[in-house]
From TrEMBL:
Keywords on record: Cobalt, Dipeptidase, Hydrolase, Metal-binding, Metalloprotease, Protease, Zinc
Full protein name: Xaa-His dipeptidase
One GO molecular-function entry: zinc ion binding
Protein source organism: Treponema primitia (strain ATCC BAA-887 / DSM 12427 / ZAS-2)
Cofactor or coenzyme needed: Zn(2+)
Taxonomic path: Bacteria, Pseudomonadati, Spirochaetota, Spirochaetia, Spirochaetales
Amino acid sequence: MNRSKTGEELDGALDTWILNKRRELIEDIKTLVRIPSISAAPNGKYPFGEPCGAVVDSMEGLIRKHGLGVKSYDYYGIGALYGKDTAERLSSNSIGFFSHLDVVPPGDGWTGSPFEGREQDGFIIGRGATDNKGPAVAVLYTLKFLQDQGIVLKHGLYAFFGCNEEAGMQDIAHFLEVDNPPAFGLVSDSSFPVCNGEKGILTADFVANLGEGNLVRFEGGTVSNMVPNYASVELRGIGAEEARAVLGSDFTVEALEGSGQPGGALVRISARGISGHAAFPENSVNALQKLAAGILKANLAQGDAVPALTFVADSFADYYGEGLNIAFEDELSGKTTHVGSTGATREGKLIIGINVRYAITSPQEELVERLRQRGAAYGYTLEKIHNRPPCYTPADDPLVIALNDIANRHLGTDLKPFVMGGGTHARRLPRAVGYGPERRDIPSPFGPLEGKAHQVNEAVSVASLEEAIHIYVQAILKLDELLS
Ligand SMILES: [Zn+2]
């Protein structure tokens, strides 16, 4: 090994190094958080819209500032290269970090602006702070530290920062068109110790004809991977006073223009829920379900609106597959989860989008058939089925064991590798695991409804990022030693 320092010596050196770098690290994260980089439609040279272009330019500036090599991926993302020959070795025998710079929409209910990068009690708060800009900067500092220490590695080392992770993963698809996959990939978009598997992800639309009924419009949810916190419907033939009287204070009722038209009064009813990540729906409240159930309970739906809304009320009353008759679970990955994430009316049809994270051993063919049957019972057809199969690296893989030990040693924990419902770049790579930087063993100081990925007041702990850099440095040394 061509190294001047042992892992232990490096760990000690990192303590001092990080202390001197802390302010700069915080400012670098805030620079990225201030860009509202929600992955969007192509715009000129930007495949995911201008804000994602801006975040790539900004990250390129940080990579250059820290003296690392830059690799362009035509605004699908940006690469940071370690050492002189990583560029040549990218296509052969490298260790790759994978993070993303795109974010989900902020939603409402934030304290202050979601794109301000506010600091509070050791946290940076803002959309994307922990998912995934803070961790991306931690990875960048890992490479920077190794470079400052003059560490020579046998393998190439790089970091890829994508811009479409939350909205279709075209970023990693582009990466794999340009470069070969790494010998081993570390995805910094998970929790410690090691996430060695991801559940399958199935998305689909349930579509019902509204032909005969009083449901004119239904709207709620903007993206597939979030539990919606707002939904509204427009019903014909119902007066606002009447609706208010039967619905109670949990719903907002407005009389709309067009009342007095054929068919009678038009009223808009809306409900608020609590948003959450589709893969971790516990503690969220689905506004689509709440609204449909409320309207049915108040007997305000008529004709075809009744089965259409009953489907929404029944299907999304739980998160564990019961409502869609797909409640598979196994020891490796736990329960299947499901959410109804979007609702919309188009051309006389009600379209309900679902997002299912199914247990690794679920029978995939049967899953789709069960969904079809469930929908049919309420007059729905199943369309736009998109299945991303699960991925799994055995927990007894020597590299998984080594990475797990490093994380446990640094965190003072005794945790086992785990499988999660979240979908990351790891599932697109032949050999990769999720590796931090979140902690599964520590509850969020913001409570169950705030502070985490996809939630309001999303936050990242600076101390946990510093801990992650310690772990990442040791992981690189270990992988460099263990990989052929
Ligand atoms: Zn993420």
